[in-house]
Amino acid sequence: MSDSKNVMELSDANFEEEVLKESKPVLVDFWAVWCAPCRMIAPVIDEIAESYGGKIKVGKVNVDDNSKIPNQYGIRSIPTVLLFKDGKVAEQVIGANAAEIKKIVEQNT
Questions:
Q1: Is 51 assigned a catalytic role?
Q2: Which of 12, 17, 22, 58 lies deepest, with the highest CB count within 10 Å?
């Protein structure tokens, strides 16, 4: 999952409450335990959660444990990172592109 206490574990059950109803931007990392590129970007996700703690909420969805949310947002490959604003997808990064993930956070906080 994550080493950071600032990264929330998101699921089909809590996604609406924690992401769609949140007033500040929410960065959501769709990942799986077996995904090597997902593990590569995990420290970046943790770093963003630490650095932007008051401005942005950060969470992870394990696609093996939760199928409804990844299907709803058309997640076909992982890692995929979505940035939600006002309950809607504002930005998307597919693949382990740390620089791009940091850029969308900076532009939306």
A1: no
A2: 58
Active site residue 2: no
Q: Which one of 8, 19, 28, 35 is the catalytic residue? A: 35
Q: Alpha-carbon distance 52 to 50, whole Å?
A: 6
Instruction: Return all residues near 4 (Cβ < 8 A) that are at least 6 apart.
Output: 45, 46, 49, 50, 58
Question: What's the pTM?
Answer: 0.95
**Bond into 37 cis (ω within 30):** no
What would the pLDDT profile of 8-28 be if each residue is shown by its tens digit? Answer: 999 999 999 999 999 999 999
Distances (CA, A) of 104 to 25, 36, 65, 77: 11, 22, 27, 19
